[in-house]
Amino acid sequence: MNRRSLLRVIVLGVLLTGFVGCGKGLTSVEGVVNLDGKPVDRAAVSFIPEGGSGQSPSGTTGPDGKFTLTTGNDKGAPKGNYKVVVTKTEALASSGQTASNPQDMAAMMKKAMTAKPKSLLPPVYGKATSTPLTCTVPPPSQPVVFDLKSGG
Fold first, then answer.
1. E strands within 8-149?
2. Which of the residues 54, 70, 88, 95 has an alpha carbon 20 to 30 A from that of 107?
3. Is the pLDDT of residue 16 over 50?
């Protein structure tokens, strides 16, 4: 085998190894989050593995409440049972104040950075220890629908 052929075999082997690792055993998961029957926009959806070990797939809802899970940079979620955490916080709005000097600007920035964002969903859905939401991957049907209630 000449050098050129050997180089082709090595490059092909490296490429094939990379492609074999791309699937990573992930299952595509799509879902919808509703609050009192209305889609929730810009909510963070996290699947927390039961037992606490492993990666946590996550996604963000769109205006129609739909999300697609990713694990790291890869689309999908590993097979298993999950607690589902859904959070959405209010963006810190500008108070309309302006700073006339650097000290006032620093004080405004400190206040904005230390302010606790307000949750826009019932807190029961925001922690793995309290959420009633669960999902098995692969799910029996898709999209997976999570109907949240204002009362928790």
1. 26-27, 30-35, 38-39, 44-49, 58-60, 66-68, 70-71, 74-75, 77-78, 80-87, 134-137, 144-148
2. 88
3. no
Give residues with Cβ within 8 angstroms of 48, minimum separation 6.
Answer: 56, 82, 83, 84, 85, 128
Contact 33, 146 (CB under 8 A): yes
Chain position carrying tokens 């999950």: 82
Its pTM stands at 0.72
d(CA 56, CA 47): 5
The CATH number of domain 25-91+99-148 is 3.30.479: no
125/84 Cα distance (integer angstroms): 8
| Cα dist from 26 to 19, 29, 70, whole Å | 14, 9, 9
115 confidence band (pLDDT: 50, 70, 90):
confident
Higher pLDDT, 95 or 86: 86
CA nearest neighbour of 145 among 60, 55, 135: 135
d(CA 113, CA 59): 25
